[in-house]
Design a protein that fits this description.
- The chain is α+β, with helices and mostly antiparallel strands.
- It has 2 helices and 3 strands, in the order ββααβ.
- The protein has helices spanning 41-46, 65-73; strands at residues 5-12, 18-20, 77-82.
- The protein has a 3-stranded mixed beta sheet, covered by helices on one side.
- The N and C termini lie far apart (34 Å).
Length: 90
């Protein structure tokens, strides 16, 4: 299958680091709880972000922006969307 481009959602952590995360909270797709903006990057990196999908992705960590950018920039036309949290965006 040919893909011309992809869109990736990014958010800032409590300590100002950028992570790839679609949901406002880590609850649905990781073993953690809470809003991305309330959590430190190092904590988010310890969460299992794959086991909810299949056992083949067990112990996969959340992607940080740098790693994601290095992988996608040479392969795709990647668009990054900064998701800024606000009470109305829930």
């Amino acid at each position: 299958m040919k893909v011309d481009g992809i869109e990736i959602d990014i958010q800032l952590t409590k300590d100002g680091r950028i992570v790839v995360m679609h949901d406002w909270k880590v609850d649905r797709t990781t073993t953690g709880r809470g809003y991305v903006y309330e959590l430190d990057f190092d904590y988010i990196r310890t969460l299992d972000a794959g086991q909810w999908f299949t056992k083949d992705f067990y112990r996969r960590s959340c992607a940080d922006f740098g790693r994601s950018f290095r992988y996608t920039s040479s392969r795709y036309d990647a668009k990054y969307r900064n998701k800024r949290y606000s009470k109305t965006s829930q």
